Each structure stands twice: as C-alpha cells, then as structure tokens.
Amino acid sequence: MLGDKDKAELSKLAARAAKLPGYIIEVKGFADSTGNAAANQTLSKDRAFVVVNYLMQDSNVPPRRIVSPGAMGISNPVASNETPEGRSQNRRVEVKVMVSKGITSSGG
After folding, report:
1. Does some domain include residue 10?
2. Which CATH number belongs to the domain containing residue 36 in this structure?
C-alpha cells in the first residue's frame, strides 16, 4: 500500500522526530464518501495501521511514541467527494509529530 516515495518521507519524518525530546507521532487515516460508513471507518483504520506498522517495523519508532491511530472515516475531507480527483485526495493518512512544551522547555 505504501509507495517508495511515501516510505522515504516516513523514514525522514521518523529520523527527524527521533532527535526531538519527548516526541509523539499522531497518525490519522481518512476515507472518501464512497461506500457505507462502516466500510469507510474500516478503510481509514487500515490506512492508518499501514503507516504505524511501517514506522515501527521499518523506521524503528517505539510503539510508546505513536498515539493510537485514528480512524477518521469520511470526516474532514480536504476536497470535494463529487470528483474522482477529490475522492482520491480524501483517501489519505495524516502524520504529525508533536512535542510537549513542558518536556522541551527549560524550567526557571
């Protein structure tokens, strides 16, 4: 499911994140509006898990550094579901690196 370009981007993200103290990686999967709600929920979960598995297995990200993957279904579309191009854009995974300000800031 992941292309070579996606794998390279995820590997770079994992390497950059590893240099940040207290980092957490958030992964959310999305679907387009085609099909029923239950199927879209499953598809979005499966997309997120493919990314999580790659990060853990191939990029050596410890499981404790990944927030439980979010299955977002058809919520938050980035494009119209009325066109094939829009539906393609809505079938996606968003990956975000977060760092707690309490962990990174020096106390005073």
Report:
1. yes
2. 3.30.1330.60
Is residue 53 within 8 Å of residue 89, measured between CB atoms? no
Q: Is the pLDDT of residue 27 over 60?
A: yes
pTM flag (> 0.85):
yes
Query: Residue 35's domain spans which residues?
Result: 4-101
Tell me, yes or no, whether 106 lies in a domain.
no
30-67: b (≥16 Cβ within 10 Å) or e: bbbeeeeeeebbbbbbebbbbbbebbbeebebeeebbe
Position 53 scores a pLDDT of 97
Q: Report yes or no on 88 lying in a domain.
A: yes
* 23 phi/psi in degrees, rounded to 5: -70, 150
pLDDT at 107 over 70: no
pLDDT of residue 79: 96
The answer to the question of residue 107 being in a domain is no
